[in-house]
Amino acid sequence: MASFVVLAAGVFGMVAVAYANTPVPEDTQDTVDDRGSIIYYGDGKTVLARLGVKRTPVTIDKIPKHVQDAVIAAENRSFREDGGVDFSGMARSVWSTVSGAQVQGASTITQQYVRNYYKGITKEVSIQRKIKEIFVAVKVSRTLDKDEILTRYLNTIYFGQGAYGIQAAAKTFFGKDVWKLSVPEAAYLAGRIQNPSRFDALEGDKDFAATKERYGYVLGGMALIDPGAYDKYKATPFEKLKFTEIKVSETNEGLRGYMLNIVFRELKKYGITEAALKTDGLRVVTTFDKKMMETAKKVVNARTAGLDPTIHATVATVDPKNGRVLAFYSGDDFIEDFNNRAFDATKQAASAFKPYVLAAWLEAGNSLESYVDGKSPIKMPGTTEIRNAGNQSFGAINMVKAMASSVNTAFVQMGDVVGLEEVARIAKEAGVGEQAKGNPSYGGKNGVDYAVDEQKYQVTIGSASVTAVEQAAGYSIFANEGRHVPWHTVKEVRKVGEGVFIEEQRPQRQVISPESAADATYAMQAVVKSGTGGAANLGSRPVAGKTGTNNGYKDAWFVGYTPQLVTAVGMSKDVPYTMDGKRKLKVDKYGLPNRKIKSVLWKEEEMPSFIGGGGTPTQIWHDYMAAVTAKYEIEQFPPKAGVGSPKNLATPKPTPKPKPTDPFGNDGGDFDWPPDGNGNDNGNGNEWDTPEGRECVPWDGSCDAQGNDVGNGQQDDGFGTAPGAAVMPSPTPSGRRP
């Protein structure tokens, strides 16, 4: 017995010493007044959005007694009498774990306040932390009166839906000030304190069972605390509560909503939910350039003014060196038009896919000086007959001319030589076709794989479905010496007081050799200098790229780049019909039908012919890139590498011999020898030079008064729309109907 007394005295003495040596922290937590998150533009300084509701502190005289009692009934019924710790409550908590009964938590209001208010008291699950919390709570209860503790607690605690503090909660859920809350409303809010994020998720799915149970528990507790005041409310139906409508936050208004939408999706891959962003005090730095975003919108609106609202343009710009999405355009207002097309709209790449075919050709050891027969039409195994624009035949042409003039049959033959699987490998390693996996029409396949399996050689002229951001990131292999960095929109994530815990991911893959990239770029410069993409010319700033238009002008592209930026511009016309496909639906200025219509059948339809790849998309690209590249120094592409050896699939015409030197010595040199009808250049390396005085080149159809190809970008790639494109749903990033 004596030994037990000695042992007890020793334990008591140690506890007393520990208690005496545990001070009440002097510093409050950094986030005590704001646990919301901030999303920044790429500079890490300019705020893109603030998420979460800031607390609006109120004094105890503004908090009605029934609101105070509701919280006490929900969280700590002995609050007014206890010394900051409720040991019987701890015992009840253990019992609830065993029995499943719903009772108060083990922590008193004072303990919760201490945990959320002061620095140095973490939320880790450990005996040491709990003991420290208890000691501080006891000391706080002796230095602060109960009203002060309750006031601080109610201004600090989280209620859900981004609302911190009782005033913010009253505004968020009921649209009124805390002093106007009814007893049932106070009971509902008090019940939420237990697990606000869980209740948010359940109520978001229209599941109110847990909320109702907690509401009833709080009303019952209030009746126990003060029967005379609250007995009459015990049976108040939950259904009588009138909540304010929680609308889509104005945070999503305009361009901001599109940026947040894709950032939220990327953060989710790291395990960070939108709910966490509202509660965890995160600081997220995105990749976006605010001015570039605004410029994209301005240019698209200027170039598409007056067009049918069902015609949409998408833009995506990627830094080829690091995969950062610097800017994009999916629409003007995410709240009204929530289709994030730059990331979600899968459209046929058309001739803008041909650079991947050329890359495979060069990687196989074949050079740009190889010749192929540009005959039309051509029939390949497993593929319908493929023709050039206007069914024009070109004769023997080299790879540069094939690219500049977008000769379909040339690329079909190139694909046959290197193998469609190799073409697909390069395109997929460049990140192309991944979004199509989410479209049921493709059976879970990458868009390029689907095109190879189902459409065979048509993949070489662009039957694969891609998105604007995939194309921008894909062409990065040409601008970045053959290397691909996956596109992304998040640079880093920090937590207040804890530093960076998510760093930018920039893995690199060498998809093609630097030499192949240089030669492909050389060929694509021809597209801009004299081919189908002439409207993209930026003067002294070098530009390479490729146009693309499929049958009937349903999809039109220009994907181009400078040494510093890659930008893809795509256009399409998506028209809503009734589900039987017989009647077009009336649309608003965003090209969308009445939001009350639950089921819509979407069809791709022809755009006006001037919107072909070399037309409006290229003009948008030019205007936008002229503006956003102004801050960059003019850099040159790597010189032509001349990789590989000629592999002729056709016999080239002999190069004309130079005329003899002028015997009279008028200029001391050779006479100029104009190019022949096929555009041969007498060996000076400028394969795309046109005959003097001509405004167009004879092999590309731009001389045709009807403008069947280059002049207006009206090329016909010889295939139809993507699988399901005529009867497919428009992409909806958040699961909502377009």
UniProtKB/TrEMBL annotation:
Region (Disordered): 639-738
Residue ranges the record marks as coiled coil: none
Protein name as catalogued: Penicillin-insensitive transglycosylase
Keyword Hydrolase (UniProt): yes
GO molecular function, one term: penicillin binding
Leader peptide range in chain numbering: 1-20
Gene Ontology biological process terms, A to Z: peptidoglycan biosynthetic process; proteolysis
Superkingdom per UniProt: Bacteria
Domain Glycosyl transferase family: 49-222
UniProt keyword terms in alphabetical order: Carboxypeptidase, Glycosyltransferase, Hydrolase, Multifunctional enzyme, Protease, Signal, Transferase
Gene3D superfamilies to which the protein is assigned, alphabetical: Biosynthetic peptidoglycan transglycosylase-like, DD-peptidase/beta-lactamase superfamily
Reactions the enzyme catalyzes: [GlcNAc-(1->4)-Mur2Ac(oyl-L-Ala-gamma-D-Glu-L-Lys-D-Ala-D-Ala)](n)-di-trans,octa-cis-undecaprenyl diphosphate + beta-D-GlcNAc-(1->4)-Mur2Ac(oyl-L-Ala-gamma-D-Glu-L-Lys-D-Ala-D-Ala)-di-trans,octa-cis-undecaprenyl diphosphate = [GlcNAc-(1->4)-Mur2Ac(oyl-L-Ala-gamma-D-Glu-L-Lys-D-Ala-D-Ala)](n+1)-di-trans,octa-cis-undecaprenyl diphosphate + di-trans,octa-cis-undecaprenyl diphosphate + H(+); Preferential cleavage: (Ac)2-L-Lys-D-Ala-|-D-Ala. Also transpeptidation of peptidyl-alanyl moieties that are N-acyl substituents of D-alanine
GO cellular component: outer membrane-bounded periplasmic space
Domain Penicillin-binding protein transpeptidase: 314-564
Low complexity composition bias: residue spans: 671-686, 706-720
Organism expressing this protein natively: Planobispora takensis
